[in-house]
């Protein structure tokens, strides 16, 4: 049997996004605009985003990695502040 899931505090800071997630947020809109017929097919859109990510070289991934690093720092700051005030 599974245990009950604890309630999440709505005031807790949102987790940091990965570089891939930042890429996916921007690319998803672009893919759906170019292929409106697959807009409702989440799996197909996800596969297209994944293959586009894998096709990028390190230089093209760098801006997304920088965004992820900044978001990670934001999360750590907010988490420390949240823990202090909890």
TrEMBL record:
Domain HMG box: 13-83
GO molecular function: DNA binding
DNA-binding region (UniProt annotation): 13-83
Pfam families: HMG_box
Keyword Transcription regulation: no
Keywords: DNA-binding, Nucleus
Top-level taxon in the UniProt lineage: Eukaryota
Any one GO CC term of the record: nucleus
Protein name (record): Putative non-histone chromosomal protein 6
Species for this entry: Amblyomma aureolatum
């Amino acid at each position: 049997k599974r245990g009950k899931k604890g309630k999440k505090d709505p005031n807790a800071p949102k987790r940091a996004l990965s570089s891939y997630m930042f890429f996916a947020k921007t690319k998803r809109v672009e893919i759906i605009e170019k292929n409106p017929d697959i807009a409702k097919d989440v799996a197909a859109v996800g596969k297209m985003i994944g293959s586009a990510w894998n096709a990028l070289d390190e230089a093209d991934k760098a801006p997304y990695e920088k965004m992820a690093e900044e978001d990670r720092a934001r999360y750590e700051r907010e988490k420390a502040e949240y823990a202090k005030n909890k």
